[in-house]
């Protein structure tokens, strides 16, 4: 005969009540824990375009009218624009800008204009879809004097405004010494702007893929 462990009815109801009480205490905390980390704002830097390129779509490695492809490691960066509760923000516009593979920004005050990669668009913008998703095809950012590799982002979010930030690459040795990145004191916020790049399924050969989600306060 199999003996079943018995719990007397009084004890069972006490246990049930304890469970309900524990759930009531834990619920608000678990809701807080489920909140997404708001993307920290970062300096715009001195090289936001003063004039937009004729071609400013979300493919920065092809410039309309040019046969050449941008120099550099191709990466696909995609993500979503949501609030901290995970609600998508349709209607958002995402802009990015970055230096070319030689570290030159497409900007009149940036050094090296004579050596700029004319096949690199340098700037792009796109509107998110109904789920708040965006994507860019660009090059892996490179270091330039004083900075670890990064891509500048400006995101226009309906009901919130303009969020300016920067995206970094996981594993870059200069990340540890970059003053702008390490100016984000909250470790979770700092981690939220550091993106691993990996070979992605369905990507073009040799291209890497990264996900950078933009989160604004609810
Ligand atoms: Fe920069």
Describe what is shown at a glance.
The protein has 218 residues and is an alpha/beta fold. The protein is 16% helix and 25% strand.
Would you mind describing this structure in some detail?
- The model is unreliable at 1-17 (pLDDT under 50).
- This protein is α/β, with parallel strands linked by helices and 218 residues long.
- It has helices at residues 9-34, 179-182, 187-191; strands spanning 74-83, 93-97, 123-127, 133-139, 150-157, 161-169, 194-195, 198-199, 208-211, 214-216.
- It contains three helices and ten strands; from the N terminus they run αββββββααββββ.
- The N and C termini lie far apart (59 Å).
- The chain is globular and about 45 Å long.
- Bound molecules: fe (ii) ion.
- The site of fe (ii) ion has 5 residues, from β5.
Task: Count the E strands.
Answer: 10
Helix content: 10-25%
What is the terminal separation in angstroms? 59 Å
Class by alpha and beta content: alpha/beta
Q: Which small compounds were modeled alongside the protein?
A: fe (ii) ion
What gross morphology would you assign?
A: globular
What is the strand content? 25-35%
Q: Note the main sheet.
A: 5 strands, mixed
Report the average pLDDT across residues.
Answer: 89
Which series of helices and strands comes N to C?
HEEEEEEHHEEEE
The unreliable regions are 1-17
Give me the number of helical elements: 3
Radius of gyration: 23 Å
């Amino acid at each position: 005969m199999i003996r079943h462990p018995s719990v007397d009815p009084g004890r069972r109801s006490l246990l049930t009540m304890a469970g309900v009480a524990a759930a009531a205490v834990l619920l608000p905390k678990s809701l807080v824990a489920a909140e997404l980390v708001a993307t920290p704002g970062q300096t715009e830097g001195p090289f936001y375009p003063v004039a937009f390129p004729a071609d400013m779509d979300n493919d920065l490695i092809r410039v309309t009218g040019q046969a050449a492809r941008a120099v550099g490691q191709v990466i696909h960066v995609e993500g979503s624009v949501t609030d901290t509760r995970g609600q998508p923000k349709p209607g958002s516009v995402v802009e990015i800008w970055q230096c070319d593979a030689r570290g030159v920004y497409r900007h009149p005050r940036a050094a090296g204009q004579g050596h700029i990669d004319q096949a690199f668009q340098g700037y792009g913008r796109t509107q998110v879809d109904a789920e708040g998703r965006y994507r860019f095809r660009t090059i892996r950012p490179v270091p330039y004097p004083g900075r670890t590799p990064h891509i500048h982002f400006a995101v226009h979010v309906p009901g919130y405004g303009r969020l300016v930030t920067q995206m970094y690459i996981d594993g870059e040795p200069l990340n540890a010494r970059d003053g702008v990145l390490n100016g984000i004191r909250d470790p979770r916020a700092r981690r939220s702007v550091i993106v691993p790049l990996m070979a992605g399924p369905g990507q073009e050969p040799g291209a890497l893929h990264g996900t950078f989600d933009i989160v604004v306060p609810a």
